[in-house]
């Protein structure tokens, strides 16, 4: 069954999601997008991308929206999600990627007034029915939930990283640091911002800031609730991030034991989500990698029952691919 999708917000994640759907051959049809930006600008940004390169397709502006290889995606420009004609367009699932409607009480307008069947918020959410990280807790989605969060890109990396350690050895507690690419929430030049560190020029600084990823892990792995915390270091690259996780385990382990556990998971239950790497890679090497977490085996460190592991992730492309996976999961139970 092909699921009909409407995208609210055609920014970085909205356009990456479109490309992920196209590249992955998913049974997903994006029938419309809603964005207040000029349609010609949206078409240009879809066709030309500074990270992903030029889209291998014929992209044209039409009276109704954007045509990609002859298939028209209807363009809408509505501030109020409740006024979007999802029912008239036959939309099953709305991908809410504006960043403005992360509170489910607001995102629910897509369903209650717009007529969509389900909403997936492409960010950490409030008041959602369920937060899902593919590879960690997708079994908790049973079709009864209406507003679902895909969590954050960092939580999508951290969850498999923590799950393997906890399932194999048991985590007592831990701290994480995400070395994260800059995002649109930061400033190109020094300028006012509610976070004074993020007020500084993103391309010129290492910027310490908060991340809710470690605390949010309890939403998808309840047994780790309250056991992890951490922060982010935003660095001057456009995409390609890493999660550094240091934990205390319930018993002493060796590097070989830890790496073997990740290798087994990457080749088994977490195939397609977790990737096992033994190469001396850097951030550029994982850009456009669709895995949620690329485990860097040579970086594993152990002292007794204290372990440090590192997982890389393309915070845009990997996340957008999980978003596509979640759309398919949600659609399968409509």
Describe the structure.
- With 334 residues, the chain is α/β, with parallel strands linked by helices.
- The chain has 2 domains: 3-128, Rossmann fold (3-Layer(aba) Sandwich), CATH 3.40.50.720; 153-315, Dihydrodipicolinate Reductase, domain 2.
- 25% of the residues lie in helices and 27% in strands.
- It is built from 8 helices and 17 strands.
- The strands form 2 sheets. It has a 9-stranded mixed beta sheet with strand order 3-4-5-2-1-6-7-9-8, with helices on one face. Strands 10, 11, 12, 13, 14, 15, 16 and 17 form an 8-stranded mixed beta sheet that branches.
- Helix 5 (153-169) packs across helix 6 and helix 5 crosses helix 7.
- The longest helix has 17 residues, at 153-169.
- Belongs to the glyceraldehyde-3-phosphate dehydrogenase family.
- This is Glyceraldehyde-3-phosphate dehydrogenase.
- It is found in: Cytoplasm.
Quick structural gist:
This protein has 334 residues and is an alpha/beta fold. It has two domains: 3-128, Rossmann fold, CATH 3.40.50.720; 153-315, Dihydrodipicolinate Reductase, domain 2. It has helices at residues 12-24, 39-47, 104-107, 109-112, 153-169, 213-220, 255-267, 317-331, and strands at 3-8, 28-34, 59-61, 65-68, 71-76, 93-96, 118-121, 130-131, 147-149, 171-181, 207-209, 228-235, 241-249, 274-277, 293-296, 301-303, 306-313.
